[in-house]
Write a sequence for this structure.
């Protein structure tokens, strides 16, 4: 299963403090808008999303169709293919996408420890 770019999306209390902290670890702003309370920060191939007030818990995120620089991949597994595979393996999805559609879509589910996993396809 080709899941694309991996990142962790963190629910932060103070986006300015979190930005400053991760800059000390060598991360720099890659995308986002601090005024809208979200940033994507990058250190080599590591991506961390900082989100203030957007969701309650941290989220493990995969982006089919993107590499770690948010560039389109020539070959990837569409989120609908991933959804079908997970469902056939007995994974219960919290949010499903329309399998008859194409293009951007997302699915959400939990791992055995209650961590939220988001598969978010932008292409």
């Amino acid at each position: 299963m080709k899941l694309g770019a991996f990142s962790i999306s963190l629910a932060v209390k103070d986006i300015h403090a979190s930005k400053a902290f991760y800059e000390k670890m060598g991360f720099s702003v890659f995308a986002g808008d601090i005024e809208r309370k979200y940033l994507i920060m990058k250190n080599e191939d590591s991506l961390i999303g900082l989100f203030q007030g957007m969701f309650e818990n941290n989220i493990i995120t995969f982006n089919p169709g993107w590499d770690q620089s948010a560039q389109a991949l020539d070959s990837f597994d569409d989120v609908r293919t991933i959804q079908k595979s997970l469902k056939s393996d007995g994974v219960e999805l919290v949010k499903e996408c329309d399998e008859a559609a194409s293009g951007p879509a997302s699915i959400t589910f939990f791992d055995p420890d209650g961590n939220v996993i988001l598969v978010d396809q932008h292409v």
Summary: The radius of gyration is 15 Å.
